[in-house]
Design a protein that fits this description.
heterodimer; A: 166 residues; alpha+beta; 2 domains; 4 helices; B: 565 residues; alpha/beta; Rossmann fold; 3 domains; six-stranded parallel β-sheet; globular
Chain lengths: 166, 565
């Protein structure tokens, strides 16, 4: 299975996410993550979809089927161009007076931030590739991770050209 | 002009040249029906919402126009689902209006509330929920544009009840503005050049035509291309009639119940030119063994169909209205005598077709189903529209009815919807009142929308319902006979239902035909009678539809059968 991140520009209208997510499920495509948000253009929403596909033909099907949706304005496969991929994670980890220093060391190594502390736990914010996030989760496992919230991957191409002009 | 949402809806329909609506009233659409009453908008009341949507579908298939239906919220709307899915699978342009509960009640599990946008998303080309009256004209304009352009399909417009009564200054938009959709679908001419080039290298090309040719009204052009090249033709179920069944190079339907010659030609050809087809599994059989010697050409408006089921060596992506004229022009410009070049191949496949015709055994005791279709085919004129339900009778009709024109053979191909036939036949007759409409149905299918006999009777819609009555759910029982050790699980019908009485109870005329000897004359009389009529034809229950390619088998692995008369 190969993974790609698709940047899908859609009309900012009610029901659009239903159309996109409904299509993905009924065509039985595998998605790793999906996230959506406003863009520099107020009436366009950008949906970032990370898909896993067997081969190029399946990838072509995903793109073409998404392209059929009336609300979809543009789809660019950012996996095929040089691009920056990031994911944000918030981690709630059990922390005691004794373990806090160790946790802080790990967070520093990964260039994360502790954004909340209580007597029993910390909340860590970290941005990076999925590999990096997986790695910190592994490192923090021994302290007990209470809760994880991940955004899924988003991506931007390098250079000045936006997806809408690609 | 100031008016309420309901009036604006009907005004929009007039601008879209909608001449007839099928529907069923209810709480959420009371205001819409009040406007229908006041403006006398032409409307046919069916006896079930499913009847309304299938009727709109039959109307659309028979006329090429967009079919329109109305239903109320909740159960009214959910009763449309099968019909919407049917239209979606066969790319039939529909605009379905459903009422929704009032804005403040949406999302509260209110009385007769259903999330119809959510429910219909997978089975529509597009759908809308209209919550503000100002959006209504734009949404309707977009809906008709989307339904009829490109690869056509059904569009649902769900309208909150309070939108119908809200006032607006009605102004119907002249143009649609959709950033993610364009209606023209022109493509890359180079792709057509590549096909012409491939044809010059081919020795055994074969046209495979489908419903897209009918939908885009390109039949005349296809016939020209076939005539000037001499390339033999096979058809999908949806493509029947695009090339007349009696044309010399026409080999018949391809696929599970295709003719011997059509299936063998696919397996032997070296260039398979698919036009407006989607290589459905009922056509291809085992995908890996489909057309093993051929390069595949795929003329198709929907890019997502390319390489979906069958890999296309030469895709031509674009509307057939764009690609086929260019194709024809380039064929004529090429310094090749195609007819001469493909003559041997044509002779070979035509000969194969003549030596292996569709056939069945007649006998003095029973009317054979194929014989019935044959007789009807002989008795009706070239303009007659034939509608079918789904099952064995549908396949016999596809095989034995001599389709001569596009929009002449209307059937639920993709979804295979039992119960489609009767309401679709009513819609077809209302769309083409000057043409005779004959429905072939079975004693299984007819019961799935038999209430529409009342619609036919009440509105005096002259359809002839030919009931292939064999006391069995035929197609499933055939599979049970062939693949499940003759264990006829839930497929045998007692025969206690008297369909003649049923039709008469609904206000239709009816007759029964039991003996082969009376078949011709009794059919002739019944088909020529005035007004809607059910013709109950008694048939044996153990006849198989043949040839048959077992599901998942390759096309040249056919179970043949029958004996030449």
């Amino acid at each position: 299975m190969k993974k790609y991140i698709l940047a899908v520009l859609v009309d900012n209208k009610p029901g659009v996410l239903t159309h996109v997510s409904g299509l993905i499920s009924r065509r039985a495509f595998n998605i790793e993550s999906i996230s959506a948000g406003y863009t520099e253009d107020t009436d366009i929403t950008r949906i970032n979809i990370e898909v896993s596909v067997e081969d190029d033909r399946e990838l072509e099907q995903v793109v073409n089927q998404l392209g059929k949706l009336i609300d979809v304005i543009k789809i660019v496969n950012l996996g095929l161009v040089d691009s920056i991929v990031r994911e944000l994670v918030l981690l709630k980890v059990r922390a005691t007076k004794e373990s806090l220093a160790d946790i802080r060391n790990i967070v520093d190594i990964f260039r994360g931030k502790i954004v909340d502390v209580s007597p029993e736990n910390v909340v860590i914010e970290l941005t990076g590739s999925q590999g990096k996030i997986d790695a910190i989760c592994e490192m923090l496992a021994e302290f007990q991770i209470i809760e994880i919230a991940r955004t899924g991957a988003i991506a931007l191409s390098r250079g000045p050209i936006p997806v809408k002009n690609m | 002009m100031q008016m309420n949402g309901a009036q604006a809806l009907l005004e929009s329909l007039k601008i879209e040249n909608v001449e007839l609506v099928f529907g069923y009233p209810g709480g959420a659409v009371l205001d819409l029906y009040d406007a229908v009453y006041k403006s006398k908008f032409p409307h046919i009341l069916t006896r079930h919402e499913q009847g309304a949507v299938h009727a709109a579908d039959g109307y659309a298939r028979a006329t090429g126009k967009v079919g329109v239906c109305f239903a109320t919220s909740g159960p009214g709307a959910t009763n449309l689902i099968t019909g919407i899915a049917t239209a979606n699978m066969d790319s039939i342009p529909l605009v379905c209006f459903t009422g929704q509960v009032t804005n403040p009640l949406i999302g509260k599990d209110s009385f007769q509330e259903a999330d119809i946008v959510g429910i219909t998303t997978p089975i529509t080309k597009h759908n809308y929920l209209v919550k503000k009256v100002d959006e209504l004209p734009r949404v309707i304009k977009e809906a008709f544009f989307i339904a009829r352009t490109g690869r056509p399909g059904p569009v649902v417009i769900d309208i909150a009840k309070d939108v119908f009564t809200a006032m607006l200054d009605f102004d119907y938009p002249k143009e649609v503005q959709l950033r993610g959709y364009r209606g023209d679908f022109t493509g890359n001419v180079q792709q057509v050049d590549d096909v012409v080039e491939a044809l010059t290298k081919s020795k055994r090309p074969l046209f495979f035509i489908g419903g897209g040719v009918t939908l885009s009204n390109q039949t005349a052009l296809i016939r020209d291309i076939v005539n000037c090249t001499g390339i033999p033709v096979v058809s999908s179920l949806m493509g029947l009639g695009c090339v007349p069944a009696k044309d010399i190079g026409f080999l018949g339907m391809v696929g599970m119940h295709g003719t011997y010659a059509a299936n063998m030609a696919v397996q032997k050809c070296d260039l398979l030119i698919g036009i407006g087809v989607r290589f459905d599994d009922r056509v291809t059989g085992k995908v890996d063994a489909f057309a093993p010697k051929a390069k595949i050409v795929h003329f198709e408006v929907d890019k997502a169909e390319i390489n979906k089921n069958i890999f296309a060596d030469y895709p031509v992506i674009g509307d057939l209205r764009w690609s086929l004229p260019i194709f024809k022009e380039k064929l004529q410009a090429a310094p090749v005598d195609y007819k001469k070049r493909f003559e041997d191949w044509q002779v070979q496949v035509v000969d194969m077709n003549e030596r292996n015709p569709l056939c069945y055994k007649t006998n003095a005791q029973y009317i054979m189903p194929q014989q019935l279709i044959d007789t009807v085919s002989e008795l009706v004129d070239d303009n007659t529209i034939v509608v079918t339900d789904v099952g064995q009778h549908q396949m016999w009709a596809a095989q034995y009815f001599n389709s001569r024109n596009p929009r002449q053979f209307l059937t639920s191909g993709g979804l295979g919807t039992m119960g489609y036939g009767l309401p679709a036949a009513l819609g077809a007759k209302l769309g083409q009142p000057q043409k005779k409409v004959v429905l072939f149905t079975g004693d299984g299918s007819i019961m799935m929308n038999c209430q529409e006999m009342a619609t036919a009777a009440d509105n005096d819609i002259d359809v002839k319902v030919v009931l292939l009555h064999n006391h069995v759910l035929g197609m499933v029982s055939q599979w049970q006979r062939m693949f499940y050790g003759k264990r006829y699980s839930q497929t045998l019908l007692s025969g206690k239902t008297d369909f003649v009485k049923l039709a008469e109870a609904m206000g239709m005329k009816a007759c029964r035909i039991e003996k082969p000897v009376e078949l011709h004359s009794a059919l002739q009389e019944a088909l020529n009678a005035e007004g809607p009529m059910l013709i109950d034809v008694m048939l044996p229950g153990n006849e198989d539809v043949l040839p048959m390619v077992a599901p998942g088998a390759q096309l040249d692995n056919m179970v043949l059968g029958g004996v030449e008369e």
